[in-house]
Structure formats: C-alpha cells, structure tokens
Design brief:
This protein is mainly alpha-helical. It has two domains: 1-34, no CATH class; 45-132. The chain has helices spanning 4-9, 36-44, 58-70, 73-99, 103-132. The radius of gyration is 20 Å and the shape is elongated.
Length: 140
C-alpha cells in the first residue's frame, strides 16, 4: 500500500486527482466525488488551498510560506470570481428595484454585492502580502 505522498507522486496520477486530508475524504478519492457544497465552498473560499505558516519550526514555516507564495496566483482567480458575483448581484438588485419596483426584494442582491467588496480587499491584501513580505522570522 502506498503512503499518501507516494500515491500523489505515483505515475499517471495528478495532484488534482487526489483529495487533501483536511477534506475528511477517503484517501485516493478523486475530485469528481466531492459533494456539491464542498465544490461550491472551494469555488468561493481559498483557505483550503494554503498551508499554515505560523506553526512548526523555522524550516516548516519557511516551507509553508514558499508553498503559499507559489499558490498566490490563485488568489487573483478568487478575486475575479468575487468581483463578477458582486457585479451580477448588483445588477440583479438594480433590475429588481428599478424594473420590477420591488426594493425589499432587491436587498437580497444588494447585500451580497456589498459584501463582495471587503472580501476582494482582503484577497488583495493577502496577495500583496504574499508577493511583498519576507518569509518567516527566526525563533526568538
């Protein structure tokens, strides 16, 4: 039996075909077997993609930092998703408010569009931080 690292690195298998242990899924499960809610969560939230760079010794933190820096380009995709969803919700809210004269119903779309702005700000700060800040400091 292969250990998880050997399984991921096995010939003919790609990282995208395996599941992360944090997902709580069986070892070796493929991405198509994930539940829809898990896929939806991963489509909008990126926490599952990065490693915790605040735990472990200096070498482990540095490795996690480099891993996170290598995956920082995905943050731009998440930013784009939130931007388009925010614009779509804003447009739907405008259609409901002005076109159908239902301002109470338009709130259901205006609020998510307004919430997409701080989410995009957080993503931008994270992306800039991963690109500009130095890695973990030594233990004191």
């Amino acid at each position: 039996m292969l250990n998880p690292v050997q399984e991921v690195m096995a010939p003919g298998r790609f990282w995208s075909q395996t599941c992360l242990p944090e997902a709580g899924l069986a070892e070796g499960a493929i991405m198509q077997e994930l539940a829809f809610r898990t896929l939806l969560y991963r489509y909008f939230f990126f926490g599952w993609l990065f490693k915790d760079a605040s735990r472990g010794n200096l070498f482990e933190r540095s490795a996690a930092w480099r891993f996170n820096q290598a995956h920082a380009h995905w943050l731009l995709a998440y930013m784009r998703r939130w931007l388009w969803c925010g614009l779509l919700c804003y447009a739907l809210g405008g259609v409901l408010e002005l076109g159908l004269k239902t301002p109470c119903l338009s709130v259901l779309f205006y609020v998510p569009s307004a919430l997409s702005v701080p989410v995009n700000v957080v993503i931008a700060v994270l992306w800039i931080g991963l690109k500009a800040l130095p890695g973990p400091l030594r233990d004191r």
